[in-house]
């Protein structure tokens, strides 16, 4: 075998049989070692490990920064920081007190209105029912006149009528023997006696009171 430099090309014709055999043996050994390494990794491991390496490279390239913590009381709904340093606390409190006073005044006015409306409604209802009771008085007068003629027959019916009307607020004035009161009685006859304050001697027509107020004055005969 002739000596060659590092940069000289090798001509296969110049190699003898022994040198060719050694070169082939070395190539076979390197191929066998590569095959064994591939078998040890497995056919599926090669692309898997390549993917893991790519993932590690991607993660290492990311810039992880710790987010800044902002006080929740100093941010609005959009997440922007709000500066409260220029707010006049005294003016805010004064405005709050003003709104509170307005609310209390409106509430008091509403309560007064509600009470007045309720009172007016009750008065109107009493007036309406009083008018109905007043319209019913001639029926009572006729029943009383019939009672004087036939008390046993008319008496139970008259008492039942008066009891039902009393539940609604009608009250018969009991004036017999009482001092004369022009607010509830009208004197149409007079019986003189030895003097003194006039008193009711006889009730000629009954008087009635409706829910505490005189509905009709009684017609009476007095004596004094």
Question: What would you say this structure looks like, in words?
Answer:
This protein is elongated. It has a domain at 90-223: Nucleotide Exchange Factor Grpe, Chain A, domain 2 (Roll). A 3-stranded antiparallel sheet has the order 1-4-5. A 3-stranded mixed sheet has the order 2-6-3, with no helix packed on it. The chain is an alpha+beta fold. Residues 1-12 and 62-73 have low confidence and may be disordered. Helix content is 54%, strand content 13%. A hairpin with a 2-residue loop joins β4 (208-210) and β5 (213-216).
Just give the CATH class of the domain at 90-223.
Mainly Beta
Strand content: 5-15%
C-alpha termini separation: 179 Å
Structural class: alpha+beta
Largest sheet: 3 strands, antiparallel
CATH superfamily of the domain at 90-223: Head domain of nucleotide exchange factor GrpE
Q: Give me the CATH fold name of the domain at 90-223.
A: Nucleotide Exchange Factor Grpe, Chain A, domain 2
CATH architecture of the domain at 90-223: Roll
Helix content: 40-55%
Strand order of the largest sheet: 1-4-5
User: Spans with pLDDT under 50 lasting ≥5 residues?
Assistant: 1-12, 62-73
Overall strand count: 6
Count of alpha and pi helical runs = 4
Shape, principal axes of CA atoms? elongated
């Amino acid at each position: 075998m002739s000596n060659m430099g590092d940069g000289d090309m090798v001509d296969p014709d110049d190699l003898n049989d022994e040198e060719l055999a050694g070169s082939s043996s070395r190539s076979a050994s390197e191929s066998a070692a590569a095959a064994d390494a591939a078998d040890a990794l497995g056919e599926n491991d090669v692309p898997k490990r390549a993917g893991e390496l790519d993932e590690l490279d991607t993660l290492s390239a990311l810039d992880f920064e710790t987010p800044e913590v902002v006080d929740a009381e100093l941010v609005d709904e959009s997440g922007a920081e709000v500066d409260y340093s220029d707010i006049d606390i005294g003016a805010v409190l004064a405005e709050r007190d003003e709104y509170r006073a307005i609310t209390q005044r409106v509430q008091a006015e509403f309560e007064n209105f509600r009470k007045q409306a309720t009172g007016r409604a009750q008065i109107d209802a009493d007036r309406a029912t009083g008018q109905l009771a007043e319209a019913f008085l001639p029926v009572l007068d006729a029943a009383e006149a019939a009672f004087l003629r036939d008390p046993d027959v008319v008496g139970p019916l008259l008492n039942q009528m008066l009891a039902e009307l009393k539940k609604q607020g009608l009250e018969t004035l009991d004036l017999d023997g009482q001092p004369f009161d022009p607010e509830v009685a009208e004197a149409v006859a007079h019986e003189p006696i030895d003097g003194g304050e006039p008193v009711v001697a006889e009730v000629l027509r009954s008087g009635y009171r409706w829910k505490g107020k005189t509905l009709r004055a009684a017609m009476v005969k007095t004596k004094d």
